[in-house]
Amino acid sequence: MKKKGPLYTIIAIAIAIGYYFTNNSSKATAPSSKETSTTVSKSTKTTDAATKKATKTINTTASSSTKAFDFLPTSTTNQVVKHDYYTLSYSEKHEQAEWVAYELTKNQISRSKHKRPYFTTDTKVKTKSAEWWNYKNSGYDKGHLCPAGDRKFSKKAHDATFLTSNISPQKHDFNAGVWNRLEQKTRYWANKYDKLYVITGGVLEENLKTIGDEKVSVPTHFYKILLDYTQPEVKAIAFLMPHKESKKPLYEFVVSIDMIEQITGIDFFPNLPDNIENIIEKSDSYKQWSFR
Predict the structure, then answer these.
(1) Is the model's pLDDT at 177 over the cut of 50?
(2) From CA 116, how far away is CA 155, in angstroms rounded?
(3) Which of 58, 60, 153, 192 is most buried, with most CB under 10 Å away?
């Protein structure tokens, strides 16, 4: 994706978010009857062959969470930081990651309990990540982007999520409410579908409220994108949530990946074959995902 100018980005953000939430307010609470296009159809031989090829590629190269991911999003900040259990793109301007990406497998889902460590700065960030004390008395939680709950399979993996490069200011009722529901659902899907590729972040834009001396931005929206790359199909789902608590069902926050790309300027799956990328990124259907 080519990076757009700042004026285009501001206009695109206003139009995209306005359009989505105007339409979303009129949605029925029951699932819609949209045509299911998230799944790459087996009926088209060319698409099916490309899907299997893409799936084989991902399964071969992203088989371990300790390896570099081959399907990382693009970075608008040119500061990609690779850790053992997740990778992130850090924004010095906003003092947080614009995205955090990692693989979550069925075997990694664990109920193990580990002592909660203190947050520390990320020494791999060349400009150093924001200090934890920017959040003190701010009224905001230190909201994990890669949740500690996704990394309970070992103490080392769990503790690795407590870097300040992996957090964003979140209202407590949002963090403990609808956002927590989405994190739990993500683990449910990883267990159901064997493994997922997860990308999470806040929508970082101009003129956001900030907290602390280092002016950590407070996003007005957060997103989470999930890619299921297990055979025989490849499918994806994306969520865009206003930064406030909601009792709405999670499927009401489903949008297309294209929409999130438009408002963030990030290309989320640049290394997928174009025909696969185009299909999964245009769809805002959730019919192939189990909501229970």
Answers:
(1) yes
(2) 10
(3) 58
* Average per-residue pLDDT for the chain: 83
Q: How far apart, in whole angstroms, are the C-alpha atoms of residue 219 and residue 230?
A: 32
Question: pLDDT of 137-152, one tens digit each?
Answer: 999 999 999 999 999 9
Distance CA(218)–CA(223), nearest Å, equals 14
Q: Which residues contact 184 (CB under 8 A, 6 or more apart)?
A: 149
**Per-residue confidence (pLDDT) for residue 53, from 0 to 100:** 52
Both structure tokens of 80: 């990609």
List residues bridging with 82 in a β-sheet: 87
176's tokens: 């403990």
d(CA 10, CA 206): 8
Q: Is the dihedral of CA 86, 101, 146, 188 positive or negative?
A: negative
What secondary structure letter does DSSP report for 142? E
How would you classify the pairing of strands 96-105 and 87-91?
A: antiparallel
What would be the CATH architecture of the domain defined by 6-27+38-282?
3-Layer(aba) Sandwich (3.40)
CB-CB contact of 216 with 95 (8 Å) = yes
Residues 258 and 279: their CA atoms lie apart, in Å, by 10
Q: Are 238 and 224 in contact (CB under 8 A)?
A: yes
Mean pLDDT of 164-184: 98
Q: Where are the alpha helices (DSSP H) in the chain?
A: 6-24, 45-61, 155-159, 172-175, 178-193, 257-264, 274-282
Domain ranges of the chain: 6-27+38-282
CA 113/CA 126 separation, integer angstroms: 32
Distance between CA 111 and CA 31 in Å, rounded? 31
Token pair 């900030």 in the structure block, residue: 210
φ and ψ at residue 277, rounded to 5 degrees: -60, -45
pLDDT band at 47, cuts 50/70/90? Answer: very low
Higher pLDDT, 235 or 230: 235
